[in-house]
Design brief:
Blueprint (H helix, E strand, L loop, with lengths): L6 H29 L18 H5 L15 E2 L2 E2 H31 L1
Antiparallel strand pairs: 1-2
């Protein structure tokens, strides 16, 4: 399939995917910073609900609330948010390296 896509479209898609992973790096760094208490996190660690069912309120006491600023698990001293940031940064590096190579091939094909 990649051979059927024009080189320009392939380059644009690579850069767009790199931008998505840059956002992932930002979110991972933000969350890791909240966990390490470098800056304050969100005031609420919950998503919104469309409707409120009062029968669900009865079950709220049975649910363990997980704080946003406490990592649930660390591996080698790094939380999953930290690994998310590091691995996403590595993916961004390789995507931009690929985009640079694609751009170089496009320029050499023209000249």
């Amino acid at each position: 399939m990649w051979t059927q896509i024009t080189p320009l479209l392939r380059l644009v898609l690579t850069v767009v995917v790199a931008a998505v992973f840059v956002w992932s790096v930002y979110l991972g760094l933000y969350h890791a910073g909240v966990e390490w208490k470098f800056w304050p996190g969100p005031t609420a660690c919950t998503g919104g609900a469309d409707t409120l069912d009062f029968s669900a309120l009865n079950a709220i006491n049975d649910v363990r609330v997980v704080p946003c600023d406490t990592p649930q698990f660390r591996f080698l001293g790094i939380s999953f948010a930290g690994y998310n940031a590091a691995i996403s940064a590595l993916v961004v590096y390789f995507l931009l390296w690929s985009a640079k190579g694609q751009l170089k091939r496009m320029r050499s094909a023209k000249g």
